[in-house]
Design a protein that fits this description.
Layout: E1 5-7, E2 10-12, H1 24-28, E3 31-39, E4 42-43, H2 46-59, H3 68-81, E5 87-94, E6 97-98, E7 107-108, E8 112-118, H4 124-129, E9 131-135, H5 156-167, E10 172-176, E11 182-185, E12 189-194, E13 197-200, H6 211-222, E14 227-229, H7 234-238, E15 242-247, E16 251-258, E17 261-262, H8 270-284
Parallel strand pairs: 9-10, 9-16, 13-14
Antiparallel strand pairs: 1-2, 1-8, 3-4, 3-5, 5-8, 6-7, 10-11, 12-13, 12-15, 15-16, 16-17
Helix pairs in contact: 2-3, 6-8
The structure holds 3-[O-phosphonopyridoxyl]--amino-benzoic acid.
């Protein structure tokens, strides 16, 4: 049986899990979300995901109708309710139903949705041989528009970039910010290795501050690598020794080609492979 969906305090079968067409989440993409993983029945970085959800909500002045503690308990509860061990969790908070018109004051009852599902993993092949990516022509949101730090329901900009990637036969696409600097991919953060140093764009490059990104920076430093957040350009990608992406869905995945240029030796590099192994241990380690 497929997992039941939590909607604002109750569980529903998949076929009955519905939200009003008048919800501004649907009408305007007015809402926020999180994508989370559970490994062996434990939710990875639950506190961090809940915190980011509440920060996204605060940034759009959306009052989530439950406390952080209640939210964390509801997420744990949804996994337990559905008897899942290794799972993907999608938390969505919508602005709620209202009249037509943008004004959020005309809405009531923000909806809290927690979808849990079995995780569908990327083919192991991609981790062994690495991804090919392209640079999308679609620019990452300007921070003064929908700030990339907000994980909002308005992902169309990233979807447009993803479509460019798909068109080019790539699973991910690199997005530059309005200044032409490397920001991130459509659903993953990007890291480069140069002179043995691990480099990633800073928050002010206009990125989502990924929870996997932070976990990987921490474990890389613990492993003795130098990790720096710095402005990067496409040139740095093309001339990198190694490149990898991080995200909840992909975990840590090597990139071996960008815009038709072979990166490094064209195979996942030693630092990328080392970090991937360490990440695998981290997510399976009790008490992490
Ligand atoms: N950048 C963007 C734009 C993202 O959307 C990441 C980076 C990586 O962040 P985390 O915190 O996951 O390390 C994301 C994450 C989905 C889905 O189902 C999307 C994400 C994560 C999980 C699921 O579309 N995006």
């Amino acid at each position: 049986m497929s997992p039941q969906v939590y909607i604002s305090g109750k569980y529903y079968d998949k076929a009955d899990a519905k939200i009003s067409v008048f919800d501004h989440g649907l009408l305007y993409g007015d809402g926020v979300f999180e994508g989370i993983r559970a490994y062996s029945g434990r939710v990875f970085r639950l506190k961090e995901h809940v915190e980011r959800l509440y920060e996204s909500a605060a940034a759009i002045a959306l009052a989530i109708p439950m406390t952080r503690e209640q939210m964390a308990a509801a997420i744990d509860g949804a996994i337990a309710h559905n008897g899942l061990k290794d799972a993907y969790i999608r938390v969505v908070v919508t602005r709620g139903s209202g009249s037509l018109g943008l004004d959020p004051r005309k809405t009531t009852d923000p909806q809290v949705v927690i979808i849990t599902d079995k995780i569908s993993l990327y083919p192991e092949e991609l981790y062994e041989h690495g991804l090919k990516i392209i640079t999308a022509a679609t620019t990452r949101n300007h921070p003064n528009a929908v700030n990339p730090r907000i994980k909002s329901l308005n992902y169309l900009n990233n979807i447009l970039a993803k479509m460019e990637g798909v068109q080019a036969g790539c699973l991910e696409a690199l997005m530059l910010n309005h200044k032409g600097e490397v920001a991130e991919c459509t659903g993953d953060n990007i890291f480069l290795v140069k002179h043995g140093e691990i480099r990633t764009p800073p928050s002010d490059a206009g990125i989502l501050e990924g929870i996997t990104r932070q976990a990987v920076m921490d474990l890389a430093r613990d492993a003795g690598y130098r990790v720096v957040e710095m402005t990067l350009h496409r040139h740095d990608v093309y001339t990198a020794e190694e490149c990898f992406l991080t995200g909840t869905a992909a975990e840590l995945i090597p990139v071996v080609e960008c815009d038709g240029r072979t990166l490094g030796d064209g195979v996942p590099g030693p630092i990328t492979r080392n970090l991937r192994q360490r990440f695998q241990l981290l997510v399976r380690e009790p008490g992490r």
